[in-house]
Amino acid sequence: MIRQDFHRDAKRRNVVDHRKTQFAAPSYQDTQYPHRLSFYSTPPTADITLEQFEQWAIDRLRILAELEACSFRNKTPAETAAHMKPLLDKHLPLDASSSNHSQLHAQRQKDHYSHFILRLAFASTEDLRRRFTRVETQLFRLRFQADDSRERAAFVRTLNLNWDPVSDEEKRRLAPQLASTIGFGHGKRAQHVMDEDWCKVDWMRVPDLIESRKVFVRMGKAYVPGREQQSMVLNEYTGRLERALELTARALPRLDEDDRLNPILNHLSKNFIAPDASYTGSGAAIEGAEMTARNVDKLTQHYPLCMSHLHRTLRRDAHLKHYGRLQYTLFLKGIGLNLEECLVFWRSSFNKITDDTFNKEYRYNVRHAYGDVGGDSNRRGGGYSPFSCQKILTEHAPGPGEAHGCPYRHFSMDNLSTLLRATGINDRAVLQGVHEDKEKQKFHMACNRVFEHVHKTELRRARDDGIMTAAQLETIVHPNEYFKRSYLLKNMGKADVKMEG
Ligand code: SF4
Q1: Which of 208, 307, 363, 482 could form a disulfide with 303 if both were Cys (CB 3.0 to 4.6 A apart)?
Q2: At the topology level of CATH, where does 50-156+235-270 sit?
Q3: 345 lines ligand 1 (CB under 6 A)
Q4: Is 342 annotated as ligand-binding?
Q5: What is the pLDDT of residues 58-113, one digit of tens each?
Q6: Where along the chain is [4Fe-4S] cluster bound (predicted)?
Q7: DSSP string, 150-191
Q8: Where exactly are the structural domains of the chain?
Q9: pTM across the whole model
Q10: Which atom of ligand 1 is closest in space to residue 405's alpha carbon?
Q11: Left if phi > 0, otherwise alpha if psi is -120 to 50, otherwise beta: which for 160?
Q12: Is 447 labelled as part of a ligand binding site?
């Protein structure tokens, strides 16, 4: 589906591998998009350029990452819809057929292609498949709810979901039983039953609705009211996508043959982090703050627990293992330490080894993280982005002797309490709250709880004086945001520190 319009590839393409030919019988044609919504059952086949391939995928990824960030911040469905609307309009618009928008086909084509490109990027591991399915279902739900009701009903009819419509005659006959499932008393019930769009399905397909008594069951069929049909459509969407991703995962080895796509796909899957939670060295720097190797020890008072633990381990052992170095280096880059200062920091911290060993074994990795060396696609944005909480919490759990990860997740409760006490958190209510958050697996909530405790005086002042906006005080989902907010709060009122978050 990529238009092969790169001269530099021309020579290579002339040598046709016989294995490629067996998959190379596509019928290049434009897909028609009669509906706004899609279950993405047919892969696209028409030509697009490599630039479109990448840009469309990045745009969809922004949307998915933002949706994930919304659920991470416990936003309600209404808040999520309001938050997502301008982003969807900008990056992945999808207008109703009735709008007669001139770009309708182009919008739907982009939606179709970007979904399939990300399927390729996120099919490789079970963890990525699960995350992709979860956020794609969220996106589908958002669009399903916002869809024009007539267009939505027409779309659902195309899905062959094995639903039988319930005739008006049957509704009339079963009105008392049907009314009780939608919560209407005598009097009004007949009209409501008649107005509702009912369908009949095998009762085994809706165990959750039966359990919550939201359907009437008769002769093996459950009578589902229109308002509950959304969950059936969503279940169907999720189930089909899960199966499709598994098939994609099995087909992935064939893609190894295309060395133009793999770097893009790898880059996409590695950067599946919330864009609002990603930091670049310059974007997160704080004006007026002294970000030097010499000052790092002092700055640790603003660190979240993950970074405090890395720093303490580094000071204790004069060494950190690979992932710990990477997590910490990117954090330092995010707070505004430049490459030279970062190299000075690591060199002076690894004080038990010679210059020669440092230069041979460690210098390159630091430069690579900053995008100063290395030829892969991560260089595009000036190296890697600092890791978000989401990434730290879900990827590369630390093994023995490793200090990276998130202590709220990766430490036992006892070790976590010891670490918190060592960093000065002794308040029993806070420790108890952290304990409960950890048990409920709300690790970032535990981190935010500690942040609020440590900064309670400053937060009160910031709120009372309106110094920081509600957005600047939202739940923290990134270690660099933790640092920045802590620094700004503790330095509130100092002339040279700007309160922009
Ligand atoms: Fe670090 Fe995030 Fe864990 Fe807090 S929740 S300790 S910032 S990874």
Answers
A1: 307
A2: Transcription Elongation Factor S-II; Chain A (1.20.930)
A3: no
A4: no
A5: 889 889 888 877 776 667 888 889 989 999 999 999 999 998 888 999 999 999 99
A6: 306, 389, 406, 447
A7: HHHHHHHHTT---PEEPPHHHHHHTHHHHHHHTT--TTTHHH
A8: 50-156+235-270, 160-228, 277-490
A9: 0.54
A10: 8
A11: left
A12: yes
